[in-house]
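Writing this down once: the sequence line spells out the residues, with the fold written below as integer tokens. I am pasting one below:
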Amino acid sequence: MKKTFERIPEEKREKIIQACIEEFGEQGYEKSSTDRIIRKAGISKGGLYEYISSKRELFLYIVEYSYRALYDYLRKRIREEQIDLPEDILERFRLVSSLAIDFYLAHPRFVSLINRTHQLADKPLSDEVNSFFTSQFLDLFGNTDETRLRYPKERLLDLLSWLLLKTRYDFLTEMENNQDIQVIHDRYLQNWDFYISVLTGGIYRERCPPRPALPIPSEVSYI
């Protein structure tokens, strides 16, 4: 993005960002339109190109912004609640999923955009987007213990990142078809409990007993 974008008033900049998240999340990169972004943001076409060099540059900025928003939220929760991250890879995924669902419920458009990044036909663009995801993902999960793992940790992280994609799609489907936020919250965690229970029986050198499911609070507050 051009330096002029950082100089505009925060309210106007945020309106442009939210218009981009909505457009890219609904249409994906290939079918998205800067004309629709302009209308949603309430700016002129010339105004937009004062801030960007191309749609590609804008898309990459918005993708990085979205990934940072999600992972910064997770790190903030972990820090403020003084959560000790488990060394075990599956226990950490279980814990992080219990935090991530609150962000998803508060920002479903971010989730839609993040999922759209897995449908890019442009390979170089896809590689750049994947680098954003990988840097954030490994910052949170890259230091998990691997001494008891039966398979290479890199392969297991690939599998778990695929499950992240699936659970996000399932979440978006639930949001479209179900208005009960508590039900959406509970089903998301129940799905992760199922996947983790299955994986627990197969990824370790020595079979370990299934971990108990995370308790689902009777009341959940969302940001």
In short: Residues 217-223 have pLDDT under 50 and may be disordered. The chain has ten helices and no strands.
